């Protein structure tokens, strides 16, 4: 297990270095291509209740995706993170400017005083963050395990989708027994359905 964790840590470091090395222009172009691919993706278009995230520094930016969802009258759900047991509560967000506050991970998350809880089985599509994925849907996240705990609770019919740059697709993610897969990986160049 320690060997797998070390490999994951090394991959995280490599991906962060790669992301930091991208020029602003290249980063914007890749992000725009990825967003356009997502906005044309049938499962995303048809989903009424979408679980998204507010990105950490080295994750795909989600601001424009969130705006698109509001413009297309989708129900936007974001996670509120629990520090103690590494849990998350899914909450409906109506207004990005008013409904979010800084959370324990240093990013904005739903304010429980303004947002209502959403049962996990109501989510139609879940956009799952990560730093690296493989073509089988294997995922390396932040290392905190929040999404590995969430994915098994999602309905079997909920599409679990990753958004990453093509450069973040690796031959094989070293997986531990508790690690969970996504169904579909969307990059700036293609859509990969889990093999």
From TrEMBL:
EC number: 6.3.3.2
Keywords of this entry: ATP-binding, Ligase, Magnesium, Metal-binding, Nucleotide-binding
Similarity comment: family membership: Belongs to the 5-formyltetrahydrofolate cyclo-ligase family.
Required cofactor names: Mg(2+)
UniProt-annotated binding residues for substrate: 54, 59
GO molecular function (one): ATP binding
Keyword Nucleotide-binding: yes
GO biological process annotation, one example: folic acid-containing compound biosynthetic process
Catalytic activities: (6S)-5-formyl-5,6,7,8-tetrahydrofolate + ATP = (6R)-5,10-methenyltetrahydrofolate + ADP + phosphate
Enzyme class, UniProt record, top EC level: ligase
Pfam hit, one: 5-FTHF_cyc-lig
Annotated ATP binding sites: 8-12, 139-147
Parts of the chain that traverse the membrane: none
Record keyword Iron present: no
Name of protein: 5-formyltetrahydrofolate cyclo-ligase
Cross-referenced InterPro entries: FTHF_cligase (IPR002698), FTHF_cligase-like_sf (IPR024185), NagB/RpiA_transferase-like (IPR037171)
